[in-house]
Amino acid sequence: MSSSQESKTNANSNGLTNGTSRNSSCHSPQSNDKTTNLNEDFHFSELSLDTLRKMHSSFSTARNWDQFHTPRNILMALVGEVGEVAEHFQWKSDAECQVGLPSWTPEQRTALGEELSDVLVYLVRLADRCQIDLSKAVLDKMAKNEAKYPVEKAFGSAKKYNEL
Ligand SMILES: [Mg+2]
After folding, report:
1. Per the confidence metrics, is the pTM higher than 0.90?
2. CA distances (Å), 42 to each of 37, 99, 100, in order?
3. 19 φ, ψ (degrees, to nearest 5)
4. What is the rounded average pLDDT of the residues 76-86?
5. Ligand 1 (ion): which residues have CB within 5 A?
6. pLDDT per residue as tens digits for the range 105-129
7. What's the average model confidence in pLDDT over 13-31?
8. Cα of 80 from ligand 1 centre, angstroms
9. What residues have CB less than 8 Å from 41, skipping those under 6 apart?
């Protein structure tokens, strides 16, 4: 996560990012009532990053694609997929981007999920091809974020850590 991205990511008291962007039109401070997760039971199905790493590695090796999967090429693919995620939000109003995407059709939600998956797959693949232990790296980074954004200073604040 770059420092600019980091400055737009809030860490909650559990040390987990809540995915809200301080400058996003979909999550502006003015629409605070729309940033509450509407489904308290929402969760991801279980899947480890290393399981995903192995799955994609096997997928690539079976097709003799490892030769193309240099870190640079995978990064380019990742950036392209981020753009495909953005297309789903492009030109939509704040009302159409509420937490939980309640106005989206099942087909729109499935399409978004596929693009988010492409991003995750390429992110994990990039870390694999760079031989970065992404599971360890993300836990280490979240611990750093906890220290940079102590709850008593950061609670309800959109300021960057060095401005708190
Ligand atoms: Mg895609």
Report:
1. no
2. 8, 12, 10
3. 80, 0
4. 98
5. 81, 84, 115, 118
6. 999 999 999 999 999 999 999 999 9
7. 39
8. 8
9. none
